[in-house]
Write a structure and sequence with these properties.
The chain has nine helices and nine strands. By secondary structure, it is α/β, with parallel strands linked by helices. The protein has one domain: Rossmann fold (3-Layer(aba) Sandwich), CATH 3.40.50. The chain is globular. The termini are far apart. It comes from Actinoplanes couchii. This is Peptidase S9 prolyl oligopeptidase catalytic domain-containing protein. InterPro entries: AB_hydrolase_fold (IPR029058), FrsA_esterase (IPR050261), Peptidase_S9_cat (IPR001375).
């Protein structure tokens, strides 16, 4: 059995029907705010950053935001408009020549329907699906694929060079997304590789988005990675980070499954995404998507 057998039905998609809400010149790139359909009755917003003066179709990266219990933040943090500057990887990658997309995950920023827009609605979104035989993860992965659909629909994007990057929550999604959508060429999972077997403790516990009833009775993240096609994976982890527990175990399994397409970057630090860590992640994406190492700033 694969994780898809536990995922439940994937929500129906829809034609994107993209609206461009704004365009802002950010110096080296243009940042667009767009709205598009992910289902028959659901539209979400995202930022798309397009570098200036592209010589032709360029590689693109799906940039997934963190969790941090900051439900008022999502896409805006990833493009550097709010929150922690160390989370602005969609902005930094656009400056390096990648087209980037940063949507809100369900329950965050413009997709948070709680009073005040900053409450945790994730467990409601999970429980109301579980009683119908569905999972929240199926919706989240459907949304990721819709973001890829949007990227590859654009003339600036090379559909054969699509990457993924995320920290924390985003780092977890970086492990699952390539198993669900084979269009990812490379994925960076930072500070989010904790397997189920290391999550049964009160200081970590389970995140609502990754509750798959019955999955962990005989499966774990290694079985998810086994579902990759040709995706290259960088597991980026910190020894003092509880969300990175088991990083070397997961990497060893990934190396056996993916060979030289699996890489590990291990740091003696906590739950952070510092400039040197991001630089290593960007070099991985440069090599796997551009076919070169980045030179210059």
């Amino acid at each position: 059995m694969t994780f898809r057998d536990f995922l439940g039905p994937v929500p129906t998609g829809a034609a994107l029907d993209v609206e461009t809400l704004e365009r802002v010149d950010c110096g080296r790139y243009t940042r667009e705010k767009v709205r598009y359909a992910v289902g028959p009755d659901e539209r979400i917003t995202a930022y798309v950053c397009v570098p200036h003066d592209l010589a032709g179709p360029a590689p693109a990266v799906f940039c997934h935001h963190q969790h941090a219990s900051r439900f008022d933040l999502g896409k805006s943090e990833v493009v550097g408009l709010a929150g922690n500057p160390d989370q602005a990887y969609a902005h930094e990658l656009a400056e390096r020549g990648f087209v980037t997309i940063a949507p809100d995950a369900i329950g965050f920023e413009e997709r948070n329907w709680s009073p005040g827009g900053d409450g945790n609605v994730s467990w409601f979104e999970l429980s109301t699906r579980l009683v119908r035989g569905e999972t929240l993860l199926a919706t989240c992965l459907r949304d990721v694929s819709a973001g890829v659909d949007l990227l590859v629909s654009r003339p600036e994007v090379d559909a054969g060079r699509i990457g993924f990057i995320g920290h924390s929550y985003g780092g977890r999604m970086a492990l699952w997304a390539p198993a669900f959508d084979p269009r990812f060429t490379a994925s960076v999972s930072h500070a989010g590789c904790i397997p189920f077997r290391h999550s049964y403790s009160r200081d970590t516990g389970m995140q609502a988005e990754f509750v798959l009833p019955g999955f962990a009775t005989g499966h774990d993240l290694e079985d998810v990675i086994a579902g990759y096609g040709t995706t290259a994976l960088l597991i980026s982890a910190c020894t003092g980070d509880k969300w990175s527990r088991g990083a070397e175990e997961v990497f060893q399994a990934a190396r056996e499954l993916l060979g030289g397409r699996a890489e590990l970057a291990l740091y003696e630090d906590g739950h952070v995404f510092t400039p040197p860590m991001r630089e290593r992640a960007y070099e991985f994406l440069d090599q796997r998507l551009h076919g070169r190492h980045h030179v210059g700033g």
